[in-house]
Amino acid sequence: MRTLKEILKAIGLGDLDVPEMLVRGPAKLSEATNQDLSFLANMKYENELYSTNAGAVLIPFDFQPAQEVSAHLIRVDDPHTAIAKVLELYSKVERNYGVHQQALIEQNVQLGEHIYVGPFTYIDEHASIGDYTTIAAQVYIGKNVSIGRNCDLHAGVKIYNNCVIGDNCIIHSGTVIGADGFGFVPQKDGSYNKVPQTGNVVIKNNVEIGSNCTIDRATMGSTLIGNGVKLDNLIQVGHNAEIGDNTVVAAQSGISGSTKLGEGCMIGGQVGFVGHITIAPFTMINAKSGISKSVQQPGSKLNGIPAFSFNDSLRSQSIYRKLPELQKRLSEIEEILSLHRK
Amino acid sequence: MRTLKEILKAIGLGDLDVPEMLVRGPAKLSEATNQDLSFLANMKYENELYSTNAGAVLIPFDFQPAQEVSAHLIRVDDPHTAIAKVLELYSKVERNYGVHQQALIEQNVQLGEHIYVGPFTYIDEHASIGDYTTIAAQVYIGKNVSIGRNCDLHAGVKIYNNCVIGDNCIIHSGTVIGADGFGFVPQKDGSYNKVPQTGNVVIKNNVEIGSNCTIDRATMGSTLIGNGVKLDNLIQVGHNAEIGDNTVVAAQSGISGSTKLGEGCMIGGQVGFVGHITIAPFTMINAKSGISKSVQQPGSKLNGIPAFSFNDSLRSQSIYRKLPELQKRLSEIEEILSLHRK
Amino acid sequence: MRTLKEILKAIGLGDLDVPEMLVRGPAKLSEATNQDLSFLANMKYENELYSTNAGAVLIPFDFQPAQEVSAHLIRVDDPHTAIAKVLELYSKVERNYGVHQQALIEQNVQLGEHIYVGPFTYIDEHASIGDYTTIAAQVYIGKNVSIGRNCDLHAGVKIYNNCVIGDNCIIHSGTVIGADGFGFVPQKDGSYNKVPQTGNVVIKNNVEIGSNCTIDRATMGSTLIGNGVKLDNLIQVGHNAEIGDNTVVAAQSGISGSTKLGEGCMIGGQVGFVGHITIAPFTMINAKSGISKSVQQPGSKLNGIPAFSFNDSLRSQSIYRKLPELQKRLSEIEEILSLHRK
To answer: Residue A229: which of A180, A171, A188 has the closest Cα?
Structure first.
């Protein structure tokens, strides 16, 4: 166990004056004991502050508790950032090194230093793996795939041939990178001919991709995932789509073929984009929206199926609920005016 | 083949008086031969009763056929339950035992009695597997994972370290348990820093989870799946979410981080829940709904994006379709009142 | 490199009169060099034609450029079909043969000629694999599975026992065929009993299925995927569902149990179908729609949640956005008529 003082010092808050206290680790307000360090960042949980058993709690600098709090309060600029650093401190780095003897690596594969390759993983010819990269069990790396430094590929990731992944990327289990895009040419007899998908997927640096996502290779050229992009789970990215730097996408959203998202966008869960459109940088899209045309204005906030301005959509939503009442008012007016409706 | 009498006896209906008949097995009305036992539970299929070739059909106790039926009719309280028991009877229990020599089990793993571990499966250190549990091929079991008795993990399931699974659970292929939750802290330069996800996933007893689901580990503490929960395919469960006992969720629904579903809820397909809300027990949510706030009232029925009362939503839906007519009526009134609109 | 003349001849356009030119390969307008052959099929990209560096461009027969074009223009009936053939020509067939020594094949498996089976793939008893079929690494093939000729199963595909796959099928990574359908019988104590799923999945010929799809086995009988069906990624097909010949379904759509789609349907992304309905042939459904009842009329076009006629739905959508204005107009009328509302 470390003292509270040591922890704060380790996360860059060494000048704070705190009581002597041993800390077992970070914990949520509702679960913390008096040996735990907790935090309050989202004010939805303010009430938990008043009943928590935590020994100490990180709170926003300007927050004034409305009731008495038993925990020692530590005021910081951003409790989210501070607790993240505490978690980092406590997340044990339990890392394996070496190529497991039950991994299978074909000829002409270039392996960096200090890598790990787990059992039942298969790396095909002419692939290259950068230094410090960890590849867990049961991963498939196709021919000519290039993976950068310090990446973390979890169990069962599948990467088709010719795809390129940058440095410091994390890819979670079950995600498939570089499968064929969905391209077919209709024939006169009603059947479809496959359009060969000869491009690849290029993923830049510092990207994290969740579990069971599917990112298709381009028909020609590359499907592109920019620097710092964060994708949640079960996300579909179609062929030739592009996602700009630092854009984040929540779970179960889908980006159709050839659509381009600008940088810094925030996309909610279960959102869908049609193909061949362009989304301006810093666009924010509410969960479950359907985006049917390009967004020109950077920083737009959109909602709905099809989506339009977020604020306007809230107004329409609100009246939608009152449609029965509106209809009734209309009928009353018609009665007054002696207009007869069936 | 068994006689019809034997089958009914085996499923607890031995006192029914039925003709001598050999039964090949259970079959749907439309596909049954005169050696098959079929059933009518959903009245949508009533017409198939009148044309079926089935030798015998399980029907509801109080059902009166509107036409002649060639099959022998067997009246039971609940044909669904009865046919399920027949299926049980006929589902051959073809079970392997032992640890396959091409499975790889690290040191300090605790293996129960009568288990099966398939080829290319990897079980990491300090995991434990309960008695009678079956783990198919190509499964990944991380460090310190605990799996209870009589579970069935299908090919390719991935379970990250420290997760806990109870007894009598079934997990289908491709499902990922315990990948990192989607947590990031925005930085001033527009990039995001990862929040380490140090918690786990706890799955209680008698849970069934379909294929290619993703259940993320908690940031701190546990993501929790209650006793008897049934999840369909391609379902997302975010970090620190909780699902109450006996709640069922249909395919492609998503539950965002820290949201808590009560017990006995029924959730349709492609439903989405925002994060940090609480859903009362026995809530029923229609397919494709978006749940944007907490539900207080147990037994609520909801529909829509965002969702509101099911019955009210049907009224709004119905008027939504007539909006062009409403607009026209409004314009006519304005004309009568000599209000000029562009 | 081939000459342009050679390429056109190889794709059946040998009688066109073109200049002498060496072609490196196919490329998109925006990325092509003067040694590349490009195409213009979607008029959204017309502007790229005027700035492209491509040496030659396939264009529709009747297209008249509005500006000068530096590339040589080649007029064809259907640029999409033509470029697909060029891609075919250039997609290197890099195929492995033989059973990898780290594949594991149980007894009584029937293997065709000229097949490939990759490392860490497991094929269980009594399965059969047709001639020229390629099975990549880490695939699971259950007992009694039958796979036809000339199929391509990518890394990590999982096929449960007794399923049947026809000829010329492509199945991408992570897809799960034949997991249990979602069938439970509610008990009086609020829990659910599993209905054994004893049927299978039957996939006909020339089917392509994307990544991480889930196609459940039937309770009894078969879940059926017709000839020439094309499924994108992350698609759910419930137990006993049927998809007619040449129907295409875009990513993240879900078809609930026992629902039957006719032939030649086109289903957008993120569409949901409730269970036990029938969809007429050639139905077209817009992305994100929810289909709550059967569609009788072949060739119907539908949109919305729940879906109705596509054209009508566009009208309602358009007025939905103007609901605040409509409400205001209504209030004005009430004021004129001295009707007082709160």
So the answer is: A171
* Closest residue in B to C325 (Cα–Cα): B327
Model ipTM value: 0.86
Is residue B338 included in any domain, yes or no? no
Residue A235 half-sphere exposure, CB side, CA atoms within 13 Å?
29
Q: Tell me the pLDDT band of C94, cut-offs 50, 70 and 90.
A: low
What count of residues does chain A have? 342
In a domain, A338, yes or no: no
Contact B234 C238 (CB under 8 A): no
A172 is catalytic: no
Whether residue C327 lies inside any domain: the answer is no
pLDDT digits (tens, 9 = 90+) for B191-250: 999 999 999 999 999 999 999 999 999 999 999 999 999 999 999 999 999 999 999 999
217-236 in chain C: CB under 8 A from chain A: 228, 230, 232-234
- Which tokens in the block code for residue B21? 């008949």
Question: In what helix (H) or strand (E) does residue C83 lie, and over which residues does it extend?
Answer: helix C79-90
What local confidence, expressed as pLDDT, does residue C313 receive?
97
pLDDT digits (tens, 9 = 90+) for B266-320: 999 999 999 999 999 999 999 999 999 999 999 999 999 999 999 999 999 999 9
Query: In CATH, what number is assigned to the domain containing residue C196?
Result: 2.160.10.10
CA distance B59 to chain C (A): 16
- Would you please indicate which residues of C are annotated as catalytic (active-site) residues? 239
Cβ–Cβ of B334/C329 closer than 8 Å? Answer: yes
Say if C198 falls within a structural domain: yes
The CATH number for A32's domain is 3.40.1390.10
A272 CB neighbours in chain B (<8 A) are none
Quote the minimal CA–CA distance from A282 to chain C in Å: 24
- Interface residue A250 vs chain C (CB under 8 A): no
Tens of pLDDT, residues C29-57: 998 888 899 999 999 899 999 999 999 99
* Residue from B204, B214, B144 nearest B178 by CA: B214
Structure-token pair, residue C74: 């080649």
List chains touching B (3+ CB pairs under 8 A).
Answer: A, C
Chains within contact range of chain C (3+ C-beta pairs < 8 Å): A, B
Task: Decide if A308 and C321 are in contact by the 8 Å CB cutoff.
Answer: yes
Total domains in the fold of chain A: 2
Provide, as residue numbers in chain C, all residues whose Cβ is less than 8 Å from the Cβ of B317: 306
Residue A176: the pLDDT is 98
Contact C160 B170 (CB under 8 A): no
Please indicate, yes or no, whether residues A117 and A70 belong to a single structural domain of this protein. no
Report the candidate in B121, B132, B53, B43 with the shortest Cα–Cα distance to residue B80: B43
What count of Cα atoms within 13 Å lies in the side-chain half-sphere of residue A203?
Answer: 32
Q: Which chain A residues contact residue C26 at CB under 8 A?
A: 198, 220
Domain range enclosing B260: 98-313
> C182 — alpha (psi -120 to 50), left (phi > 0) or beta?
beta
